[in-house]
Amino acid sequence: EVQLVESGGGLVQPGGSLRLSCAASGFTFSRYSMNWVRQAPGKGLEWVSYITSSSSTIFYADSVKGRFTISRDNAKNSLFLQVSSLRDEDAAVYYCARDQDLTFFDLWGQGTLVTVSS
Amino acid sequence: QSALTQPRSVSGSPGQSVTISCTGTSNDVGGYYYVSWYQQLPGKAPKLMIYDVSKRPSGVPDRFSGSKSANTASLTISGLQVEDEADYYCCSYAGSYTWVFGTGTKVTVL
User: According to the 3-state scheme, what is the secondary structure of A54-114?
Assistant: First the structure.
């Protein structure tokens, strides 16, 4: 089955860090660029970060630049997001999403919840 | 990277048509033919409904259609059905490997 499964979310204090993971299966992960998209409770979707299939190109939304780091391990079919210096406004469900040549997101995981609270 | 503007909610009776607008700028919606639409049911991940402005993925009913004019894209649901009640988000490529989503629209079937 073609799927993405996120993990690593949890409760973290403001200023803290977490490493989110996304396990891919059922398709050739190394051929696709990947993204993280988040959704704060009761709010809309926000694109967070992008990484090409070879990790040669990486981009971030201005809201997370300098605090979040995206990476991948093609040998382990895994995508990661290191989230650091967390703020209240970073609390959200974080989805990993596969994109098709910069045009659309055709495969989404179920999401992992990050809660920021002291 | 400002969010694209969508109406907060739209509603219609079963069998009617509803249209959701998505307004951006020449730097996103108006500048690229890469507008997509996603349906999100409560507690679920988004699901791709329309890509490249007007194309439907396999398995999406043909009552869903998309279009674009200048800086505004639209999603139309014709022959509204109860199972179409959900949140809908537009999304546009915004250049330099970045994307912007819409504010989201709740579709209610009366």
Answer: CCCCEEECCCCCCCEEEEEEHHHCEEEEEECCCCHHHCEEEEEEEECCCCCEEEECCCEEE
User: pLDDT per position in chain B (110 positions), as tens?
Assistant: 799 999 999 999 999 999 999 999 999 999 999 999 999 999 999 999 999 999 999 999 999 999 999 999 999 999 999 999 999 999 999 998 999 999 999 999 99
Chain A residues 55-114 within an 8 A CB cutoff of chain B: 57, 59, 61-63, 95, 100, 102-106, 108-111
Q: How many CB pairs under 8 A join A and B?
A: 66
What is the bridge-based pairing of β-strands A105-108 and A92-99?
antiparallel
Inter-chain touch A100–B100, beta carbons under 8 Å: no
Residues 6+ apart with CB under 8 A from B52: A103, A104, B33, B34, B35, B36
